[in-house]
Amino acid sequence: MKRFAIAAVSLLAGVVVGAALMLATQSLSSERGTTASAPTATVPGATPTTQDEPVPSITRVAPPVSDQVLVVWTPGGLPEAFADRLAALPGVTAVTTVRSDLVHLAESQGADGEIVDKPADGMVIPLEMMAFDPATYPAFLPRQDSNAFANLAVGQVILGSTSAQLRRLGPGAVLTFEDGSSLTVAAVVDDVLIGAAEAALQVTEADVVGVAVERYLLIRYSGERGELEGSIREELPAGLAVRIRAPGETPVLRHGDAVLPQVFIKEQFGEFAYRPGEDLTFELEAEWVDANIVTSQVPMLGEVKCHRILLPSLMGAMEEIERRNLGFLIDPDGFLGCFNPRYIANGKGISRHAWGAAVDINIGSNPEGLESIQDPRLIEIMEQWGFTSGDDWLIPDPGHFEYLRPAP
């Protein structure tokens, strides 16, 4: 697995999988301008990934199921009627489609009716919301968890455990969104059960809060995986890239799994409110910026403005490059910065640059969408200091280095 063997070993060490399913950023698909280590464990029966794309190491325990399962996703959303076509393939016994989009939280109230979060006028809190089909999704969950999804009522929402901690909310709390619609929290579940989204609702209400894009499929199958993967690829439009993974090959079965989901970025870098703009940029709340964004001189890159948590990793990587007399690997004119409050260019997701949690290096010779010409030594050093490279993503972004874990 070339230089990503270390990342794969770290992944397998961090995820306990028997015959298991993990339900649960860039490719969301990739972004110009966008982020955990795990204890050692044995992974019985895990199938090594055949992909070279690195995956983040997140300590999560997979809920058990008895059948073979795959996650399938394509950049920017699934082709039309893709689930129906795959459901008809030989060996496929069940399929469910998962939507996911960015939604805007305007206010939250605890179960006692007291306001917990209420950003300043015109500002909202961005949440990654997933939408599931209550008729098909629960079949991919452990039996003890399936009722919370199968019985979720209209007007209700489920929170992931990390999101609930960030929100300081539990069952009975109320989320109110930018358009005035509200949802009541019915349950808090493990993050993996909702694909590491921040919240989940049933698909019949997805349009109410603006969750429109079909992001990934979960497939249960029998027979040979290789044959099924070949059949899946034959159902794709010509030239469309696809990622297919099984439990144990990725921390969470979801789309864009080479980077940390937004909820885990928030967990480490903090959550902000922002004022959406009319283009790709937006205004962050000043209090969050003042508390988290710093400016410092970094060897070879010059003045860098980024998150205070990221700075030691970036400084360490550049200092190591200097110590090894590899400064020629860095083009100072190709550094396009770190902190940049903006959306991902090809979708509604928020760039990791908005948290100051990613850097763009040698961009001039490594444009998005083209094969990487980054020196492997640069990528190796950046990975050692906690960054993942976009050079082997489904849509390559070889100049993009995104936070994955703390500095050593």
Structural features, described:
A hairpin with a 5-residue loop joins strand 13 (274-276) and strand 14. The protein starts with a helix and ends in a 5-residue tail after the last strand. Helix 9 (311-323) packs across helix 10. The protein has helices at residues 5-14, 82-87, 143-150, 161-167, 206-209, 225-234, 262-269, 286-292, 311-323, 376-384; strands at 15-16, 60-61, 68-73, 92-109, 115-117, 125-132, 156-160, 174-177, 182-189, 199-202, 214-221, 243-245, 274-276, 282-284, 293-298, 302-307, 358-360, 387-390, 397-403. The protein has a 6-stranded mixed barrel with strand order 4-6-10-7-9-8. It is 20% helix and 25% strand. It is built from 10 helices and 19 strands. The chain has 408 residues and is of the alpha+beta class.
Task: Provide the fold topology.
Layout lengths: L4 H10 E2 L43 E2 L6 E6 L8 H6 L4 E18 L5 E3 L7 E8 L10 H8 L5 E5 H7 L6 E4 L4 E8 L9 E4 L3 H4 L4 E8 L3 H10 L8 E3 L16 H8 L4 E3 L5 E3 L1 H7 E6 L3 E6 L3 H13 L34 E3 L15 H9 L2 E4 L6 E7 L5
Helix pairs in contact: 9-10
**Which strand order does the major sheet show?**
4-6-10-7-9-8
The separation of the N and C termini measures 23 Å
Note poorly predicted spans: 1-55, 57-66
Radius of gyration: 21 Å
Class from helix and strand fractions = alpha+beta
Arithmetic mean of pLDDT? 85
Shape: globular
Strand content: 25-35%
Order of helices and strands: HEEEHEEEHEHEEEHEHEHEEHEEHEHEE
The biggest sheet, with number of strands, parallel, antiparallel or mixed sense and barrel status, is: 6 strands, mixed, barrel
Number of strands: 19
The amount of helix comes to 10-25%
Count of DSSP H/I helices: 10
